[in-house]
Amino acid sequence: LEVLVMTDPHGGATELLLQESRRPRPLAQERAEAWEAAKALGGMPLALVMGGALVREERWSFERLVTELDAVLKLRPESGEYPDSVVGAVLLTHERLRADLPWAAVLAELCAWLAPEGLEEGLFAGSVAGGKWKTARTLTTPEVRDLLEHPENMRAALRGLRRWSVLSDKGAMHRLTQAVLRGTGGQAMAESAAAVLAAQFPNGKDGPAFVHSWPTCRLILPHVQALWAAAEPLWHSTWGQPGWAAMDYLLNQSGLFLSTQHDLAGAVALKRGSLALMEARLGEEDRDITTALGNLALDLANLGEFAEAQDKIDRAVALAEAHRKGTERAELATLYMQQASLAFRRMEAGGQVADGAEAMAEAALDKARGIRVELFGEDSAEMSNWWNSMGYLRGLQRRKGAELQAYKRALEICRALPQADRGVLATRAMNYGSTALELGRAEKAQGALQEAYEIAAEIFAEVPNHPNLRTMAHWLAACLMVLARKGQGTRAQAEKICARHGLDLAEREA
User: Fold this and answer.
1) What are phi and psi of 257, to 5 degrees?
2) Smallest Cα–Cα separation from 153: which of 196, 105, 185?
3) Percent share of the chain, pLDDT over 70
4) pLDDT tens for residues 235-263?
5) Residue 279's closest CA among 239, 331, 316, 237?
6) What predicted TM-score, i.e. pTM, was given to this entire model?
7) Cα–Cα distance measured from residue 302 to residue 64, given in angstroms and rounded to the nearest whole number
């Protein structure tokens, strides 16, 4: 994009520089010097704001600003396409911060690798407060550790960056400032940024698959994406193959979150990155890459990339079967479940793609059941998931009675769990209710479908067009129309739901 510059000697550029330097009523000579400085800064708004902050904070004259700018530009690294005036203003500001406010300089270098918005104290405090910081801190520089582990240092750094116009009051950093500063902090600061984010990205029982973790995932995701976009080219061209467990973890978890949001293309891009990093760090035959292979295979299958998906899941299963023993077979059971899910997608696609898929699904589910019952018991969350998958398979086989019974068992187990995830419970209820409705049992279906819809409406309040919510609205509206045909007063509720979600009422009625 072309950036407009401010070139009027009696207008914008001079006035902005005077304003930022706190010289609202300068003499004619000082105004003339300000104009010369504005020209040296290229009339670029970012450079003018930073230049004004230098004059204000260092008590420089405008002539001194021009001299210092010339000096730093002679020593600057290659700036590529960025204007010299902006590069000079950023580097000069950073140089002064290192001398006067070293904590602020460290924070600026760290923020340069993150998203340009949301750079507030909570983002960094969340890392130190989490249980994963003890491990993550070893992957950061000593300066970053001292900054984050001492709140007084962090607050002083934030005040300094705002005062020097490096950060806005709303926690935003100009993208050009970030681009210049990334060359200052280098790879060590990029690694630190990855560790800071990894320390707070949800995993395990609080991972991206569970609704209660989504607000945290939404907060961190833009920073993961920004870090990946900035660092990936450097890994290949400058730094060499990285060995960053923090980064491949971040990419995998972010990909899982995007999968829950139905952004499959975005999920695949991040999961490919995670797998590439793990293979570079561990080798292609390491057992710890099985999770990345399985996660990527599912999204590839959902995008119709069946050949690659099958290759990925077969590799993962083979590695896990060779290396996972004892309780570690829980990972193998998960891979069998993913193998079954891939088979479902192939069955749905039909044609030659579906050849052998049904047998693969039956075998994979049978193997998964044996491991899960042994390790977790019949009434575990893992077995609720298994029964749900079995119900899906029976539906694909058009065995509706068996499908209903499987979904009923999945829902019963889920409801009995002391801390069942709300999103999982909604899906279980919808699967049971929709199958009951298809079998002509609308009265039995209504309660489950109403429960599913109400939970989904709460979960997806910020994403009203989420496919999961619309699907649950479809089923509930259809159920209510069936009941209305039987003489119950449910049509008005169905009309209201259809209007709220933009559904075709006539289509639902049919």
Assistant:
1) -65, -45
2) 105
3) 95
4) 877 777 655 778 989 999 999 999 988 89
5) 316
6) 0.77
7) 61
